[in-house]
Amino acid sequence: MSAQFSQIAERIRYGIRTLLKRTVFAIYRMGCARLDISGLVFFLPAGNRHEFERSETCVKEAVWIINHFDPVRLQRIRRDLSNGIVVVPGIGSAHYLRDIGICILNLKRLREGNHLSTALSIVHEAAHARMRCVPNSTSEQRARMERICIGAEIAFVSRLPDNRRALENLRRMQAETVARPFEGKVPAHDRW
Fold first, then answer.
1. What CA–CA distance (Å, rounded) separates 152 from 173?
2. How many structural domains compose the chain?
3. Which residue in 9, 72, 107, 119 is deepest, having the highest Cβ count within 10 Å?
């Protein structure tokens, strides 16, 4: 009886956390500019004009890179990230929030203007979105999922010209991703 009560309580807590996340992101997105770039919806914070334009240019270039070198992947990404890509300040790296179906990108990285890094972040997080139904309760499963997502980046980068260095770094990163006790994502590595 207490096990059933515990399961019900956990479902209620999960439902409340999910509702709170959705509410916070809905409120945050109201203060953002909505950009539809080749069918991908981005929510960019409407800060000062110069910084907004740099961020906008970076996401446009990143989507162009994906569309130019792998248009089929872009179609999948549109489906997998149909709830949008939210750009927020103050996070360490990009990640996908499985429970509310939103991809988050780091505003600081966009402002740095590395188009390829942004494209790879989108490809990586879309792979996480594609696997959203896969349970990830163990560290082995999470590490395997991370290796699969890095594999999606490798497949994408292999289509790009002058890709040798990037491929080497991604393959090294994939090989170094091992199961270990952790909460959340595997720590982000510097891809370049």
1. 13
2. 1
3. 119
